[in-house]
Amino acid sequence: MSTPPPARDVAVVGGTLLRLTPDWVGQREHGTVVVRDGRIAAVGDVPVPAGIPVLDATGCLVLPGFVDPHTHLGVHAEGEGWHGADVNEKGEPRGARLRSWDGVDPSDRGFADALSTGVTTVAVLPGSANVVGGQTAALKTWGTTVDDMLLRAPVGVKSALGENPKKNAGGPTTRMGTAAALRDAFAAAQRFAARPHDDGLPAAGDDRDAEVLARVLAGELVWHQHAHRADDIATAVRLADEFGYRLVLNHVTEGHLVLDLLRERGLPAVVGPLLTSRSKVELRHRSLAVPGLLAGAGLRVALTTDHPVVPIQYLPVSAAFAVKEGLDRDEALRALTLNPARILGLDDRVGSLAPGLDGDVVVWSGDPLDLMSRALHVVLDGRPVYRWDAGGEVARPDGSWAPL
């Protein structure tokens, strides 16, 4: 494994801060963000330590890095066909032991695109061809190897309901078959967890899948449930009620049709991708108003591009359209930062400008929800990794800069 570059110290000065902390209610304040050893040391009206590098943000907005909680960055490269498609292991309909980060290509151009729009953390999920696609990872969007980039892994396990697993020849062909396969998998996990394991050896064979799902049942890992249609959302809730795991709904295209159910359960929703056509039956009720309707009902909402379904640089564009269709403007910023961090259990590291969190800071030329605004500078773990200069430049490991 290559050695990641050392974390950096930096002070971002002169800008207007949007902290996006849990108690943030839209405040904008002139101030400084001080990053020491890769972590935020101080925020607000604070002095700049002597000798620390300074990044001038005068006249700009300063926000935490964005978080996209559902992507296929590195495992599904744009425009590369089968060569770049490592997202679905179709021979494994119940593949909980599969790990998305084992297939990540850090040279995927999508990571640089993410930096160019202020996205510093992504969840990389397996695809939705299988009932259980595999384990998910949280990655930073800059690094030489996936080991450099890993923030936390595993974060959860991906599962799919609806059209996609039905179309995979290696799995169930009906919705009732998909639900039955999930019940079988969790029943096996319950049996595994109930058995004594005294030999200290790793699980083997089918037990490897059961061991991972036992961690879901224990609440250690979230269950990322792909569900577009209202009946699939209801099935996702039913299964979570039966087995008691932490459910995070992904896509939630028809969530507004079962709003009372979601409100009653208080379930978090990762909504999107929003900038798509109605390319399949499950998307017939796709609406840019859904994020606002769910957030208005009191649900914690995050937005996703599902990259490369929608290129990741359009994440703030998605938020802008959601605001146009009713999502509160401040809530849209939370849906790009704090909310996805909380949903993924990463808010102890990312999603806010607060002391102790990772030094992921983005300097914006203006409001990120204004299509004319740009991410001018991106600092990741205290290291400047992107700057808008001659069309955009990304840092190399040796500290030099390369054109985007």
UniProtKB/TrEMBL annotation:
The keyword Magnesium does not apply. It comes from the Bacteria. GO terms for molecular function: hydrolase activity, acting on carbon-nitrogen (but not peptide) bonds. Keywords: Hydrolase. Residues 201-386 form the Amidohydrolase domain. Signal peptide: none annotated. The keyword Cell membrane does not apply. SUPFAM superfamilies: Composite domain of metallo-dependent hydrolases (SSF51338), Metallo-dependent hydrolases (SSF51556). This is Imidazolonepropionase-like amidohydrolase.
